[in-house]
């Protein structure tokens, strides 16, 4: 949920008009409702078991780790050393560094 809020704020600042503000407020409200409703439904379905899990976790990234409710294992970094993650990282960096080439090529299209 925090990621969606950051996305909304960034796009609102970037676009900077009242339509973007209204859309961002609506999306943030939608995500807050989603978190609340999801927790409510899981609490109804699983009762005390959900409350135990909820007490150990957080909807805010890394909050449970910073609060000491959870601890990262010593080899947590191995989770990120997988082919799909490395592939997406390489493609993203490649596209980022290729932007000047793509801009120059599109300038020469003369459409």
TrEMBL record:
Membrane-topology annotation of the record: Multi-pass membrane protein
Main location: membrane
InterPro entries for this protein: NnrU_dom (IPR009915)
Transmembrane portions of the chain: 12-36, 80-99
Keyword Transmembrane: yes
UniProt-recorded Gene Ontology molecular function terms: 9,15,9'-tri-cis-zeta-carotene isomerase activity
Top-level taxon of the source organism: Eukaryota
Record GO biological process: carotene biosynthetic process
Location in the cell: Membrane
GO cellular component: chloroplast; membrane
Keywords annotated in UniProt: Isomerase, Membrane, Transmembrane, Transmembrane helix
Matching Pfam families: NnrU
Stretches assigned to the NnrU domain: 1-102
Protein name: 15-cis-zeta-carotene isomerase, chloroplastic
